Amino acid sequence: MKEMNTAEIRTDILVIGTGPAGSACAALLATYGVEVMVVSKFRWLANTPRAHITNQRTMEVLRDLGREVENEAYLHATAQDLMGENVFCESLAGEEIGRMKSWGKHPLSRAAHHLASPSRMNDLPQTFMEPILYATACGRGAQGRMSTEYLRHEQDADGVTATLRDRLSGREYQVRAKYLVGADGGNSLVAEHIGTPIEGRMGVGGSMNILFRADLSRYVAHRPSVLYWVMQPGADVGGIGMGLVRMVRPWNEWLIVWGYDISEPPPEMSPEFTAGVVRQLVGDPELEMEIVSSSIWTVHNAYATEMRKGRVFIMGDAAHRHPPSNGLGSNTSIQDAYNLAWKLAAVLRGEAGEKLLESYTAERAPVARQIVTRANQSIAEFGPIFDALGMDGGDDIEKIRASMDARCDPGPDGEKQRAALRDAIAFKKYEFDAHGVEMNHRYRSSAVVADGKPEPEFERDAELHYQPTTWPGARLPHVWVYERDTGARVSTLDLCGGGRFTLFTGIGGEAWLEAAESLGGPLGLSLRCRVIGPRRGHVDHVGDWARAREISDTGCLLVRPDQHVAWRCEKMVEDPRGELERVLRAVLSR
Ligand SMILES: Cc1cc2nc3c(=O)[nH]c(=O)nc-3n(C[C@H](O)[C@H](O)[C@H](O)COP(=O)(O)OP(=O)(O)OC[C@H]3O[C@@H](n4cnc5c(N)ncnc54)[C@H](O)[C@@H]3O)c2cc1C
User: Fold this and answer.
1) 482 in contact with ligand 1, CB cutoff 6 A
2) Which of 195, 185, 160, 171 has the alpha carbon at shortest distance from 37?
């Protein structure tokens, strides 16, 4: 085959893009021992902060990469305690209009966070996240090449031949890979080349980012937050719903996000213009600042309904294009990688059939749709706040001022307006405290085997509240158990992952272990087993595991390498080996 003969470099997986998706994918594959090459057309990793809200599920992925990876993220991150006084104001120096506790700041929400995960939400700008993931990838053997541009590819029955350009020399060369992953962002060429069907609309709003340095601690020390929402004339035009002053580094590096009407040409980002916007939103006409950079970008509302064509996959913004609302961009990108990496590794190792790869679209395309829809809806949900304040898109400052002042009036109208504003701000929990959106993913695909029980209904709002379950397809619930030998506290999530399948059982479930051991050889699979119970490897002193597992002591849970439950069995069966083999063959498409 011509391509094979001329390809100069061979690798198992070629990843295009070193953003959160590509770097995470390379880090995971390298950790699983897969030959991976990861390229980016730029010479640098992220050079502007962009994504920052890092949710618990993403931190669990980092934790699975290694405690040192998770800890490095915490080292650079702004801690959850400093994230959540989400302020709505006229300007930072001006009057505060309202506030909502966000990102797990409210004690009830914080308790839910503590119960849900061993990992903590935090604020980690993309400028820190990417180097952590990329260094992990390269430190574990991934071949990283910067200034390397993907141009095109061809695929055949055995692999993919990609043409890349070395941007230092201009030389084009070919890489032959068994699979290609397009993690090349919102303007993905890979997605275009495979003709990914994209639903929705691109370019629904105009926005600008202005990165600047200034010590603003005097305005924020008493209400630490990552987001300060500024309601001024024009704040409801384009952008992400309202003018935003976002903390990048506490409290002297900031990013302003301000919208513009996309039907008009974008504003010219001159130093005078950008400094003017900063001073206007901060509310300090004398503010001393250093403008670091500025850029124009557009808000999208589009998602892929197919994330694979043959041997080529897309992930991250290549598959879901949406505003930063809810902070889901980089999180979902990293979680896409977590879903695909183990499947690719299993197929390459011969542990799984190629059909397993079909489950990637089946499991992640619904998430893409969900998060794009949610992020765009969150923009619309600023509307009631503007309504309550009488801001109707006009720029009549006197009118806006009068209507904002009216909320301070005594009497029924003032009271009604205050109530409307209170409700509208509280409703923003769907953007700023949507724990369910972040944690409730339940997969349906060939890589999950149902146990005949109906899916548990959500007892509370599924977007706001995480509801643990071991229903096949859901992420394994986290609870703390204790190592028998040391007494050390360990999360159930720490007992699985690491690129391997794990079987959980309890006292009386030993026959599952024998079944797993005897199947390991014939299936060429190394299955990890965990027995939780008194005098076993891990002890459930508090009883949380017994309450969370939804099976009996003699039952079992089969957990995939991405910590989602593949299958469960309520109690011991007559032929555990036969049952486990049936399930593993189904899950692995064997
Ligand atoms: C201006 C801007 C502001 C944003 N602000 C926020 C925010 O505040 N909060 C938030 O959550 N999200 C934000 N996002 C979104 C967030 O940054 C993305 O969701 C996230 O970066 C997606 O990660 P990714 O790895 O899929 O793609 P990207 O981070 O876009 O990475 C794409 C990678 O592909 C590489 N690449 C592209 N084309 C080629 C090619 N032809 N050849 C080789 N390499 C290529 C690029 O060099 C890059 O390494 C913002 C995005 C933008 C553009």
Assistant:
1) no
2) 160
Q: How far is the CA of 186 from the centre of ligand 1 (A)?
A: 7
Question: Chain centroid to CA 417: how far?
Answer: 36
User: Cα 335 from chain centroid?
Assistant: 5
pLDDT tens sequence across 145-198: 999 999 999 999 999 999 999 999 999 999 999 999 999 999 999 999 999 999
Substitution site in 15, 40, 129, 313 for ligand 1 pocket (most atoms within 8 Å of beta carbon): 40
Report the Cα 428 to chain-centroid distance in Å. 20
pLDDT at 399: 79
pLDDT-derived band of residue 240, with 50, 70 and 90 as boundaries?
confident
pLDDT in tens, 495-516: 999 999 999 999 999 999 999 9
| 454-477 pLDDT per residue, tens | 999 999 999 999 999 999 999 999
Instruction: Pull the structure tokens for residue 62.
Output: 């980092």
How does pLDDT run across 48-83, given as a tens digit for each residue?
999 999 999 999 999 999 999 999 999 999 999 999
| Cβ 21 under 6 angstroms from ligand 1 | yes
Q: Residue 194 in contact with residue 309, Cβ under 8 Å?
A: yes
Pocket test for ligand 1, best of 23, 25, 58, 184 (most atoms within 8 A of CB): 184
User: Residue holding tokens 């990609």?
Assistant: 162
Structural contact between residues 526 and 349, judged by C-beta atoms closer than 8 angstroms: no
Angstrom distance (rounded) from CA 51 to CA 217: 22
Say if residues 182 and 191 touch (Cβ distance below 8 Å).
yes
Do the beta carbons of residue 376 and residue 322 sit within 8 Å?
yes
Split at pLDDT 50, 70, 90, the class of 123 is: very high
d(CA 231, CA 240): 13
Looking at residue 188, what DSSP letter applies?
A: -
Structural domains of the chain ordered from first start: 2-77+121-199+304-377 (3.50.50.60), 383-427 (no CATH), 440-587 (3.40.30.120)
Residue 14 pLDDT > 70, yes or no? yes
- Look at residues 79, 109, 118 and name the one whose alpha carbon lies nearest to residue 432: 109
pLDDT grade, residue 6 (50/70/90)?
low
Please state, as a whole number, how many other Cβ atoms lie within 10 Å of the Cβ of residue 520: 16
The amino acid present at 521, given as its one-letter code, is G
Q: Determine contact, residues 363/370, Cβ cutoff 8 Å.
A: no
Q: How far is the CA of 93 from the centre of ligand 1 (A)?
A: 32
Cβ-proximal residues to 409 (8 Å cutoff; 6+ apart), any chain: none
